[in-house]
Fold this sequence. Notes:
There is one protein chain. The chain is of the alpha/beta class. The protein has helices at residues 2-12, 30-36, 41-50, 52-61, 81-101, 117-129, 146-164, 168-174, 177-181, 229-241; strands at 22-26, 66-73, 105-109, 137-144, 194-197, 216-219. The chain has a domain at 146-189. The chain has a 6-stranded parallel β-sheet with strand order 3-4-2-1-5-6, sandwiched between helices.
Amino acid sequence: MLYPAYEARVVKFLPTDRLPKHVGVMLDGNRRWAKAVGADTAHGHRAGAANIEPLLGWCEEVGIEVVTLWLLSTDNLNRPAAELEPLMTIIEDAVASLADQKRWRLHPVGALDLLPAATARRLKESEDATREVDGMLVNVAVGYGGRREIADAVRSLLLEHAEKGTSLEDLAHDIDVDSISEHLYTKGQPDPDLVIRTSGEQRLGGFLLWQSAKSEFYFCEAFWPDFRRVDFLRAIRAYAERERRFGA
């Protein structure tokens, strides 16, 4: 009974001029949560998927403009088919459900060419269905790995200049941080101000490697299915209380 009052107080005293505009969230701990409650892995993934919509609502509440959700890494693609196939269906359905609401503009990020064709198609359909939505931008990272993203960005940059006939010498002279950034999956977006990871793990694991160079990080002990509004607000408050040094 005390949580609603506590949450309201936290929201009331959040400094509006110090809130993040872009938040990345590593939705970690579904499998361990399922094991802890004596359920199978698919049940854990479904419970995690059910917590995505509430999170986006909390983000809207405090004025966040961009959210990046890491749902599936490239490493996860090596999991046994018995676990991976149901997970793909859960992700497809979760993203389609978000798209059906027409509240958020969805943007898949990741190596979609590594995903099953049906999964990649449904993710793109959700993006197309929300392209004109005037709402928060939600990056859905599926089949995502930070090293793969950087490699894809460099490859795209090289192909672009090859089509222009740019010599290797000229390209080597001109290539810089900005030119690579323009070929990332999140091109044109602000870098994340805050990255949240659930489940107690305190590492990035390859999430937004390039973009998070100057981000603040918040690690929460709760498994993702148990991540609550109060946990989110504590993360936002911790961010607002920090003195950002932007990598210095």
